[in-house]
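step: validate -> pass
step: tokenize input -> pass
step: predict -> running
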Amino acid sequence: MSRHLFDTLDTVVTLMRKASTRTGLRTTVNVIRRHYETGRKATDHVKQNLKIVFDTLLPKWNYRAIPQYATVIN
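step: predict -> pass
step: emit ->
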């Protein structure tokens, strides 16, 4: 039986929390333990009014999707 590096959520969280950069930046890991319904479709209204804000440094990987009535905290 082979053991995988990412065999449990706790293993992944532990490894992510140990990560840092050469300059000492550390990671913050928060796990949202909630069940989300699958297969739901966004309405055309929601899609048309969803604001996508791309990160200036890495826009291809980092972005935020902000619903029309959401409050943004920076």
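step: describe -> The first strand starts at residue 51 and ends at 54.
step: cleanup -> pass
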